[in-house]
Automatic annotation (TrEMBL):
It comes from Natronorubrum texcoconense. Pfam families: DUF2206. The keyword Transmembrane applies. This is Predicted membrane protein. InterPro entries: DUF2206_membrane. The keyword Manganese does not apply. The chain crosses the membrane at residues 15-35, 42-62, 74-95, 102-120, 126-149, 206-230, 250-273, 280-297, 303-320, 341-360, 418-436, 448-467, 473-491, 503-522. Keywords: Membrane, Transmembrane, Transmembrane helix.
């Protein structure tokens, strides 16, 4: 049956896939009436549009008319304009003391100029090296200006990892974190600690000189990977799409093990595609094994994502070995025909090593593997169900925020946050349709296609069933790697297949919207959100940092067992996390304040900061649900409370003798 099916020449897999995708998009449209969720409303439209554009490109055939290109003088001047603009971004940050809306506006224009060069410069004046220089320089400036303008760190988890790294330095060995789950995956902490000793600098500076520098440089791995599949123009485009992506920028500023895990993941993707595209040697395969082990020893979530990639590669191998649809008849003018690489040994080794390491990793009262399996089983039993969209009050995910939208701006902001991802998703769908053509199918591109599909299931699919155990927000940056490559292939497909006027319209919309959408997304500006009434600020000023240390000293830095319920300190989220993550106050002794609508908090000890009256912070309501709220100082620090600490911006209040 397989042999007869593979000889059915008229069967066009890409055409069938496009028609199936269009039908699926139409079938998914009614789901918006059963659940209010951003991706339920937008992904079917994106999928349907991508399928229609691809089918139109097949109907119109090859595009023989050359597209308009930039004049030579403009093409030669643009690199200098971009580099001058990047210098202006640095100057703006120094002068204004923060990355302001003006900064992000200029950055959006510069991103548009970079992608515009890639798409509209003619072949003679296309210089990949100069374009890559602009992309890497943009990545450095965009990230390091945020790090420069932030007194402490950006993000929440980073404070815990700093404490763990300090424990390694104090102990002189990894035994300093033997109580923590990172004990079995300590590469990040060892790298930062050793950098601090080697350079004789603080942990903060060591972090920026190690992981901070590695993050923007790692985008070159996307170029190296894409260049194994497509020409330099489109490989450069894939690099730009990845470098500008919101979540990629976030992990370049919130520098935690996820960041280093992403670097090693990109190196592994390059090594994996390389062994599939060349006549590899033992050295090439050894590098693949080395990078996979590095991921395992760096971060658990990154490890699971890597295993998903390996599963996709192994499935691609099986498909091409069985070959039910004649996929081995590859057009060598598109991809070089090559026998599928046998990955069974690599897959077994990595799965085995992961299970072994996770079995030895402490997490709670048992191993990391046992705890994770327990949490997952509990979720399946108690909360999983179709369209049972899980939510997290402390999460600012755009799809969840859309559910609580009230004003016009409330409704628009979640779509602004997701717009860049949706644009990239659309061109990725087109790229996927292109590579499933049996004449273009090859193990490497099928690996990227299957990896993107599997990862989208974890990012978009499982949360719709109430399953968020795999921390889907951590997956986006990893997902953007195969999406950027497939997206570049998708744009190339439309350029070659669509009528020129349609091509120019599509490219102009993409060039004008994608960079700005990614830069305006909350992940790209979490240290100083553009929409500060809708997204919490994940960075603190000098007064807020000093207050945490002072309050810790004032209270005697008690242990959790010494604190009674009536001694718990309450403040907003995320500020409350800073107390226990820095060790100033135990986790059991700090919590998010409950502030009823229009009412006052009823807590013995509270901490007010001026940000609570001006920006978006989280409090809980009377039912215990988290919500973004702006309050006045008397709502948290009541008149009947005594002020025990203040520095002008942060005030700690305690119940007075006559209160209650």
């Amino acid at each position: 049956m397989y042999s007869r099916l593979s000889e059915l020449r008229p069967l066009r897999l890409d055409t069938v896939a496009a028609i199936v995708g269009l039908v699926l998009a139409l079938a998914l449209l009614p789901l918006r009436f059963f659940a209010s969720q951003l991706y339920l409303e937008t992904v079917p439209l994106i999928l349907g549009t991508a399928c229609v554009l691809y089918l139109v490109s097949l109907y119109q055939g090859a595009n023989s008319t050359s597209l308009p290109t930039l004049p030579s003088g403009v093409a030669m001047a643009l690199p200098s304009i971009v580099l001058a603009g990047l210098s202006a971004l640095v100057a703006l940050t120094v002068i204004q003391g923060a990355r302001t809306p003006l900064f992000f506006g200029v950055a959006s224009v510069l991103g548009t100029l970079v992608i515009g060069q890639i798409l509209f410069v003619n072949d003679r004046e296309l210089h990949p090296g100069i374009l890559l220089l602009q992309i890497v320089a943009f990545a450095f400036v965009f990230r390091f200006t945020a790090l420069y303008a932030t007194p402490g760190y950006i993000g929440i988890d980073i404070w815990t990892h700093t404490e763990l790294t300090q424990a390694i330095l104090d102990e002189g060995s990894v035994g300093g974190i033997s109580h923590d789950k990172h004990y079995a995956s300590p590469f990040y902490h060892l790298l930062v600690a050793s950098s601090s000793v080697l350079y004789d600098v603080s942990l903060r500076t060591a972090l920026y000189l190690s992981v901070g520098i590695a993050m923007p440089l790692s985008v070159l791995l996307v170029y190296a990977t894409a260049n194994l599949l497509v020409s330099a123009r489109w490989a450069t485009l894939a690099t730009a799409l990845f470098a500008l992506a919101s979540h990629v920028s976030m992990w370049g500023m919130h520098l935690i093990p996820t960041s280093l895990g992403l670097v090693f993941f990109l190196a592994m993707v390059y090594s994996l595609i390389r062994v599939m595209r060349i006549e590899y040697t033992i050295r090439d395969f050894a590098l693949l094994v080395l990078f996979s082990v590095a991921v395992i020893l760096t971060h658990q979530v990154s490890t699971f994502i890597m295993l998903v990639l390996l599963a996709a590669a192994f499935l691609a191998q099986i498909v091409f070995e069985i070959d039910p649809l004649g996929l081995t008849r590859v057009d060598t003018s598109v991809f070089r025909s090559k026998k599928p690489v046998n990955l069974i040994g690599l897959v077994v080794f990595n799965f085995g090593l992961t299970i072994f390491v996770w079995s030895l990793t402490p997490y709670g009262d048992q191993s990391f593997l046992a705890t994770v399996m327990s949490f997952f089983s509990q979720t399946i039993e108690e909360s999983a169900g179709f369209l049972n969209i899980a939510s997290d009050s402390g999460d600012a995910d755009p799809d969840e925020a859309a559910q609580a939208a009230t004003t016009l701006l409330d409704q628009v902001v979640p779509y602004v946050d997701a717009l860049g991802f949706l644009f990239l998703l659309g061109v990725t769908f087109v790229g996927c349709l292109y590579v499933v053509h049996r004449r273009r199918a090859e193990q490497s591109v099928f690996t990227l296609l299957l990896a993107a599909a599997f990862m989208l299931v974890f990012v978009l699919g499982l949360p719709m069933f109430g399953i968020r155990n795999f921390i889907p927000t951590r997956w986006f940056a990893f997902l953007f790697a195969p999406m950027a490559i497939l997206g570049a292939i998708g744009l190339r497909t439309m350029v070659r297949g669509l009528e020129p006027r349609i091509v120019v319209s599509v490219l102009l919309i993409f060039v004008l919207v994608y960079p700005g959408a990614m830069i305006l997304a909350v992940e790209s500006n979490s240290e100083n959100p553009i929409f500060d009434d809708h997204h919490e600020q994940l960075a603190y000023n000098e007064a807020e940092l000093a207050a945490v240390d002072s309050i810790g000293e004032l209270t005697g830095s008690q242990t959790g067992s010494e604190i009674r319920e009536d001694q718990r300190i309450h403040t907003d989220h995320p500020y409350q996390t800073l107390f226990w993550r820095t060790g100033a106050y135990p986790r059991s002794g700090i919590g998010t304040a409950t502030v009823p609508d229009g009412g006052v908090a009823d807590h013995e000890y509270t901490v007010y900061r001026s940000t609570q009256s001006t920006d978006a912070v989280y409090f809980t309501d009377a039912d215990g649900n988290g919500r973004i709220e702006q309050i006045d100082q008397p709502q948290l620090c009541r008149p009947d409370q005594a002020t025990v600490y203040t520095n002008g911006e942060v005030t700690m209040c305690a119940a007075g003798p006559g209160s209650g």
